[in-house]
Write a structure and sequence with these properties.
The structure is a homodimer. Chain A is of the alpha+beta class. Chain A is about 40% helix and about 25% strand. The structure holds a DNA duplex.
Chain lengths: ~150, ~150
Amino acid sequence: MDTIINKVDAKGRVSLPSDYRAIVKELSTEIVCYRSLSSPCIEGCLEETLDKLAQDIETSTDFFSEAQDNLTNLIFGDAKRFPFDSTGRIVLTEKLLKHASIKDSAVFVGKGRKFQIWNPQNWEKEEARIRAEALKNRPSLRPQEKE
Amino acid sequence: MDTIINKVDAKGRVSLPSDYRAIVKELSTEIVCYRSLSSPCIEGCLEETLDKLAQDIETSTDFFSEAQDNLTNLIFGDAKRFPFDSTGRIVLTEKLLKHASIKDSAVFVGKGRKFQIWNPQNWEKEEARIRAEALKNRPSLRPQEKE
DNA sequence: TTGCATCCCATAAAATCCCATGATATACCA
DNA sequence: TGGTATATCATGGGATTTTATGGGATGCAA
């Protein structure tokens, strides 16, 4: 949960937000990150989340399962473990940073079982886009009052 | 639930009204807050309420669905846990306070499984608007006295 | 030896906890 | 019923702990 902006230093180190860390720590000492398939951002989760995804698709009889299978393979091929150090940081790779156009600061965006890491400006735009979309698709949520 | 006004101090702390707290305490030691999509106010609920919502989204679409991606970003990206301290307060963030234009006092409004936190003046207007709307849609309702 | 990655320590800022106080509501008793 | 004692609540300030972040040391590998 939550959206948090942290700095990325010259070594590529970023602090995993403490709220995130608290949750991860209960289950593991590392996270798994990979390039998002759909957006210019990094995605992260626990390894077990990826395993579960693979299992679900294996047992699925879904018509699209083959396509999903391919996507899953893409993710697995890209994914890498990132242990965090004693101060709670991970060291992101050039490949990931480049994919997300991240230079010296990064935004962590919660997604329930996963999270994303964005370039701050790009996330700002993306968030605006998503909000606009949500309002369009649910007219009942449209703001009514003006101030 | 009641409508209660409490002060917000320089640190962003607000007392969760004791009636609210009593209910929350039975199930958790913290609440989850996020910016209302439709109004200039903060919304709060129990984490399980959000989890349920996320589950509904997950089961209605697949892992790679763009719509699901957007919604989970919207919900979990914005929401944040707010544990209350030993005196029953939570510390609201700048982002939330700004969204609701809350400075030094806040109104808690019960909404069933959720509640909202408003800037007092804005809530006054909003309440008037809701009353007017209710009367318009149900002419049989006579105006009762206001307090 | 040199480059790279990991680990460790230091520090400043921020979030959290703890206690004190005043106010309000509730309970109790004459 | 009135009036006082008691408990609960809201609020303020200060102390303590956690976090984020920078710099440097250490170890491994090419």
